[in-house]
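Quick question about two entries, pasted in order.
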Amino acid sequence: MTQDEFSLIRQWTSRSSGQHGDGLSVGIGDDAAVFSLSPGMEVVACCDAMVETVHFLRETMNPSDIGYKAVMSNISDVAAMGGLPRFALISVAVSPGWSADDCQQIYEGIYDACEAYGVRVIGGDTVSSPAALTLSVTLLGEVEKGRALRRSAARPGQLVFVTGQVGGSAAGLDLLLRSAKKGEAVAEEWRPLAWFHQRPQAQVAAGRILAASPWAGALNDVSDGLASELSEIAEASGVRLVIDERSIPVANITRAYAIETDQDPLGWALYGGEDYQLVGTLEAAEVKEAELRFAEKGIPFTVIGRVEAGEPSVWMDREQGRMKIAKAGYNHFGGAEAGKG
């Protein structure tokens, strides 16, 4: 890239021009952004990074998908707190081999994700990197004071639920890797699986329903797989979670692909991650009310288990009997555990 750094940044972030108002006083173009949040609200802040070869491969993700997914992982974190995403700061370290046009496409994906959820890009940083491209997103949101949802709120007697379907992103990654290895395009019948991996949807609306309700307990987003997220809730809350294998919602296309490739869709659901659904607990007596609220918004909602008193752990009831589920999934420092793409 030989073009002037600042002209490139202006070009990549042009979709942020003229976006003042609604709490934003100073946006991109000054030393820092200035904004205000609504009275009676608390700030929800999170930061997540995507590193080439660690979080994504060029064989499975085009540049716009990389930008989109970097933002979506942060929006999902805000959703897991019951919050509304508001403002994003984007930092990118560009390595050799990535052109100015590649970076433009990354930013197009960033803005696609932001605009879908009402988020404004208000600043960031752009530098060079000697090795891998790195994209870091800091997201600022808001939630009503005292209403933020936490992993530590599960209590014995509550039920465990999950929104949407799980395992599809991991199946999509498997599909994309197989196709890349063969040098073939993804077959049309399996394209929705690729979409699950490349363009997942954060569950902000579901989080807002839960934040407004008196019956919500703990909440987490499915970024590292059900096994990992459930374990985090069990540990933070000091409870035992028992889930029913038959109740775990897996999309028909995911099951069909598993049959086609002789794989186990349960493994994708438990250990794959990046579905960005919400998993949590709620009061058992209010499950019908919860089902009604989610149905009104067209959000799939499935009860998959229950909360019990006991040593913090996760168990699963199967036809073969009850088995303990290890806390596994994607782990940056966990050696041979499942990777991402």
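Here is the second entry:
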Amino acid sequence: MMLKEKIHATQNSTNVCAEVEGFDFQNYDDRDIAELRRLWLEYGVLRFKRTHISDADQVRFSRHFGDFVIHPKQLQEGGHPTHPEILVISNQMKDGKPSGALGNSEATWHTDTWFYERPPAGAILRAIQVPPSGGDTYFLSTYLAYESLPEALKMAITGRQIFFQNVYDKTGKLRLNKQEPTSKDFREWDGVVHPLVRTHGETGRKALYLGGTIEGAWIVGMPQDESFSLLEELWAHTTGQGDIFVQTWEEGDIMMWDNRCTMHRRDGFDPNTIRIMHRTTTSGERPV
């Protein structure tokens, strides 16, 4: 009987991502999943190189990390034809229509669906087809962003809450099932309130929670101009840190991240090339 290779992870020098080796997506047990979960919680971002698994394999694997969350784009152009759990991210056109979500433009720093009452805990993204260049994905740790804050900034945000409007997306497009607001003050629109510093439900560590944009965000109770200035400072600190991991994709690569303590972004790429990714998303708790 052939013994399975032991699962181990090597942390990248950026302190954000660890590369996992020794995990067999076709042959694993509960102990293997428990070890992956431990690594996921420890590092925040895990990379699996050139896995070449099927959509069914991805769904089966993802199920071990929580119930599935349907991303808003899955109800529009990003739905999968046979696996409703999968969000298709693609710039490929079929019959004159997008065959997936997000196109080829740059995606700026964000935490996934920050405008939900219960944002997802994690995401698993698999490369199906990648362009010769571009479309790289960047990751940072919001643990590190919080822990490296100057003490004065930490004091300024202690106990603070942040409001995110959820009527318009980052491109200014009306979100699904939302109506045009009657007020010009976004603070009066539909939205959610989350702690500006959240405590991870499993690790107990504190992380900054900035969502996905300064526009439409407000530190509750602050004058709007002061809130905007403080958020600008927090965003500059978070995205300006040196510990950023860059994933240059190869077909079959999988990135798995903890949405509660990381942010990510994507480079744009040549629209004449094709990039197809399949993503599964798992449920999380309400930020506290």
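Reply: The chain has five helices and 19 strands. The longest helix spans residues 224-239. Hope that helps.
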